[in-house]
Amino acid sequence: MLGKSTNSGRRSAVITGVLLLTGLVTGILSVVPVIDGADYLVEASINENQVLIGAFFQLLMVAAYVGIPIFLYPILSKHHKGLALGSAAFGIIAGVFIIIGVIILLLLLTVSHEFAKGGTLNVSYFQTLGGLLREGRDLVNHVATTLAFVLAMLLFTCIFYQTKLVPQWLSVLGLIGSTLSILASLLFMIRFIGLDSTYMMLNIPIAFQQLALAVWLIIKGFNRVEQDFVSK
């Protein structure tokens, strides 16, 4: 019984670590610079492949954001079912917001194509529509999605901290990083900061913790406390 539980816990740890790395990599590859530029209405249609590649990798993020708390649930629910369930719920919400963000991105590409066909006609119309879509995409990606996933991470990190399933320094870094990332999203939402260096700096700790946690889970797995708990 203990051996089976240990193998299950080890497998969940490795899968979670791989999904954490997948989330980081796909997040980087989903960036679409042409959409963020001043001439996005022109550049998006010209660089259609870049937009489609970004949309593809953004969709792959769904597997990571939803999968991480779900694969952790069987382990974490043994220690705190409420927090584990909340983490899984926020992960699913984050996945839904990612899909919404992809839809908006593809709508921006469509608007860019229509703008290219129209030439100088109805320029203000396309600029207004494009601006609204881009604003909506920023709010979905950097506020709604980020808040949902970071809250999922915050909840399972609280369980990690309480149970010492992973080293305490990883849990503490996760708690600090999650708090700073939530702060960054809220400050961006009220337009106190933009997608600038301040926003990036506030999100660096959670990115580093996600990377460190992924490597730890893949190489070391969960600490012995999990096995001791299951064996009781």
Descriptive tags:
9 helices; 232 residues; disordered C terminus; single chain; mainly alpha; elongated
What's this entry about, in short?
The protein has 232 residues and is mostly helical. It has helices at residues 2-29, 33-36, 40-46, 48-76, 81-118, 123-163, 168-189, 197-219, 224-231.
Written description of the protein model:
This protein has a domain at 2-149 and 216-227. The chain is an all-alpha fold. α1 (2-29) runs antiparallel to α8 (197-219) and α1 packs across α9. The chain contains nine helices and no strands. It has helices at 2-29, 33-36, 40-46, 48-76, 81-118, 123-163, 168-189, 197-219, 224-231.
The residue ranges in which pLDDT falls below 50 over 5 or more consecutive positions are 226-232
Q: State the end-to-end distance.
A: 11 Å
Give the oligomer, counting copies of the same chain as homo and different chains as hetero: single chain
For the biggest sheet, the summary is: none
Q: Classify the secondary structure makeup into a structural class.
A: mainly alpha
* Coarse shape: elongated
The arrangement of helices and strands along the chain is HHHHHHHHH
Number of helices: 9
What value does the average pLDDT take? 91
Q: Report the β-strand fraction as a percent range.
A: under 5%
Helix content: over 70%
Rg, Cα atoms, Å: 20 Å
Overall number of strands = 0
Task: Write the SSE topology.
Blueprint: H1 2-29, H2 33-36, H3 40-46, H4 48-76, H5 81-118, H6 123-163, H7 168-189, H8 197-219, H9 224-231
Helix pairs in contact: 1-4, 1-8, 1-9, 3-4, 3-5, 4-5, 4-6, 5-6, 6-7, 7-8
